[in-house]
Amino acid sequence: MKILLLVLLLTGLPASADSNEASTRCSLRSFQAEYRVSAAVFVGEVVKMNESEGKKYFVFKVKKFWKGVRSEHVKVFVRENARFQSPFEEGKTFLVFAKKDDDGVLRDGRCSHSAEIDGTSSTLKDDLEKLGKGKTCIDLAVKGDEVEKSS
Q: pTM for the complete prediction?
């Protein structure tokens, strides 16, 4: 038993399930890095949750946006697993930082700055201040694609 424990300590493998907790955590990117890697950044209310072909997605009604929004409704996919359960719930409003997958769909997941507007996120207030005023979907209707290009 002592040899096994020594091997585990030397290889860095967890000796118990409790010590594995640290490996399931992630570190958040800086605001600048999160904004840069996000294809869409917006505040929206979840109006629908659905699953299609084993993939869960949420439809948001956009209230304001800073990047990557071309219509009033945006679909964001999530990959849930034992370490990540999406915080999105119908009727609640979120600041969303969504990345674009290789297949072109927007996706959010673990270690994102996405947060419920009325929640307790430690980064939410700071992120909203850094984002500034934002644009509304009325801007899309009035200016068309010019809004997207000015982001």
A: 0.74
